[in-house]
Amino acid sequence: MFNPQLTPEGHLKHLLTIEGLPPAILFQILDRATEFEAVARQEVKKVPHLQGKSIFNLFFEASTRTRTTFEIAAKRLSADVINLNVNSSSQSKGETLLDTVDNLSAMQADMFVVRHAESGAAHLIASHVGPDIHVINAGDGRHAHPTQALLDMYTIRHFKKRFENLRVAIVGDVLHSRVARSQIHALTTLQVPEVRVIGPKTLIPRNVERLGVRVYHDMVQGLKGVDVVIMLRLQNERMNGALLPSRDEYFKYYGLTPAKLAHARSDAIVMHPGPMNRGVEIHSDVADGVQSVILKQVTFGIAVRMAVMSLLAAPMPHSAA
Amino acid sequence: MFNPQLTPEGHLKHLLTIEGLPPAILFQILDRATEFEAVARQEVKKVPHLQGKSIFNLFFEASTRTRTTFEIAAKRLSADVINLNVNSSSQSKGETLLDTVDNLSAMQADMFVVRHAESGAAHLIASHVGPDIHVINAGDGRHAHPTQALLDMYTIRHFKKRFENLRVAIVGDVLHSRVARSQIHALTTLQVPEVRVIGPKTLIPRNVERLGVRVYHDMVQGLKGVDVVIMLRLQNERMNGALLPSRDEYFKYYGLTPAKLAHARSDAIVMHPGPMNRGVEIHSDVADGVQSVILKQVTFGIAVRMAVMSLLAAPMPHSAA
Amino acid sequence: MFNPQLTPEGHLKHLLTIEGLPPAILFQILDRATEFEAVARQEVKKVPHLQGKSIFNLFFEASTRTRTTFEIAAKRLSADVINLNVNSSSQSKGETLLDTVDNLSAMQADMFVVRHAESGAAHLIASHVGPDIHVINAGDGRHAHPTQALLDMYTIRHFKKRFENLRVAIVGDVLHSRVARSQIHALTTLQVPEVRVIGPKTLIPRNVERLGVRVYHDMVQGLKGVDVVIMLRLQNERMNGALLPSRDEYFKYYGLTPAKLAHARSDAIVMHPGPMNRGVEIHSDVADGVQSVILKQVTFGIAVRMAVMSLLAAPMPHSAA
């Protein structure tokens, strides 16, 4: 099957979604990230891999946090980074998305990191750019957020060593979450035998079982015996809507408290993509507790983004070095 | 005649306007840009010419696109770039323009790239700064946009090899266009024998013939036999005003369609400074057609801006190297 | 007494406030800045001291000017700089200040430059971050602005050579000024024998004498015989409030005119932290006059910030080099 993310030889050309990527590619990224994790502990946290490359952070939707992680990753690879918040500029002048992309491409861009409120925007851009330009999806609508899923896989492997014997629960607003969608694809691709989603009926997509997950509406049942608990962020805008009764109600049933976490395995790790709503989807005692690996996710996220960028820009920098 | 852009020895000190620059300076910039165009095709797209220099993008008027081209150009010259959108900061604290400039100068700025809504702002700044600081006008009011005109000349020379035998038409809202004004000065300085401006009477400045151009109000007449068609952007704010009947009406008479373009020479090139209003001043079949060199203009724009910056910062880097 | 800014060995770990810092630390910073002042006059204005370090400009309150000086200082030290204007991002997503800091720390930040509207914000962050992260207070509420005070001390030493025989007057809105508070601590720490504050009763803090200053409400009396006049910025928002009758009234009594300045020593220097309100707290003839050293303050500010950053990041770079 044709995969627009891969070259005919099977190398990574764009990173748009986890769906359809072979396990070997995921492991290649995770392994490369392991090398870069060591770089971050050096006195000089830089490598020359992307020297002279121009990387455009093309954010059609504001996200300082995600943009910052890509900016740091690119700078540690010695790239030149240009930040573009596009809402306020060309788009308001009536230029189309693809005209904007064509123009930036004509400036000899090497890579676009794209965040967009519309699902499919990164795919559209990837299908449009020339053969020397690489596209990374940094979140598109409700569709995908592949680097987040990859850093989550990196975190799981770091703490659990392997994927083949794990039970993983994803908890919360799965319906609106591009993070959850990418995590599910990554976990199933990596052969995690049991992936669960837990949440109220209004926040679980219909037919999600087709993706290879089990659905739970009860936290205690869903968390029983799991090795990994991944909490999702509850968007503020959902809380006042028809989908949820109230913040307090949500926290009572789906907020991760020490009591609920006790139903997971005693060595279970707790993850969250951030930013957290303390007291809404997670209790501070859990967020700051010994089982939380939330800040490690952030650290690993830099290494994983460096890995993706360096693989896209130069498939085999080591042999070239 | 005293020209504030030139040193007593006739070297370029600031780039404020094309008007009054000798042809030799324009050719010097175009020739230097040819060297930098090759840099952009290298694996590492950087040269050390401006290492350790501090370049301030001083944008009093928002323009992500123009700012980005200068930022890329400066970074490829290894300069340190500081982006300042000044509306929202010092100006709102009641500091005057020249106090802002004095302060940034005191931070040992080497170069200011200035975009301002008022005509003459770049000149004012250039007349105020110390002898070691260079100013580039990145667009001031309706007055001038010299780097845009230079990249247009570069594009014309690239495709037409020489200027002495050309007919060039500039089409659209000449009245409000700093781009058109700079293009006319550049074309006449470079000895283009026939420069035409085409547009409705309400959008052509009175007495524009004094600049050495012929005025046409009819597209078919104006495009007949030309080698180069330069379309201008129609500002959205004009469309609802008293100057124009409607977008559709404008497109009917002055929008560049394949049918109208057929009146130009068959090897004519089509240019546009961007961002385009498709379906207003230009038909997509032309914008994306074989005669369009619009994206090449963007590419050449980086090389031309590198050339201007490197000439200002160090008149003879090659002999110094 | 425990000082959170110092290591147990007495080295500078954070720069949060001048209060409590030993004179030796202040002199160490001023001496280091002298070295960096020379760097700024080099052809290539860069040194490698902070290569590969990640410095975050964490501005919870907008200040292009101050942010720019830190950005330039960090880039001249070869650091990677990430600018974060935090109002518009994570904070609006409901993330707490310390969660934001934890996240950025997890990205292996080396240094935070913090500007915040709340007094104590930088202290809070410094007390929270890990042992390898350094915090610089770039202004917190009405509390402190230590790098401004240090560059003022540098300026005074540059022009007056020593501190032990000086009379210094600080004029204006001392009540709301973090700059004034830091200046008073710096001047008294450096053994300036006479520090005066001058202003209307409504803008002088009660009991300010306890800090070791003399209070004057009359400009002529207060300026008599002083070596240094430090003007403070009058915040626009004060002018319409109950604290002040009117701008004109304020200028009449406390605006620094040539006539009032004549009461100071004939070789007195005039300083201002900027941005100035000409015609409110200072007359243009003074601001631009021969006694004004206001732009030198800006120049020295870069060197002083480079000194602080380099001392925090590596206490003894010379022995390491």
UniProtKB/TrEMBL annotation, chains A, B, C:
Tell me what organism the protein belongs to.
Answer: Ferrovum myxofaciens
Put simply, this protein is called Aspartate carbamoyltransferase
Q: How does it assemble?
A: Heterododecamer (2C3:3R2) of six catalytic PyrB chains organized as two trimers (C3), and six regulatory PyrI chains organized as three dimers (R2).
Residues reported in the UniProt entry to bind carbamoyl phosphate: R65, T66, R115, H145, Q148, G274, P275
**Quick one: a GO cellular component term?**
cytosol
UniProt keyword list: Pyrimidine biosynthesis, Transferase
Which positions in this protein are listed as binding L-aspartate? K93, R178, R233
Q: List the Pfam families.
A: OTCace, OTCace_N
Q: Name one GO molecular function term.
A: amino acid binding
Q: Which gene name does the record give?
A: pyrB
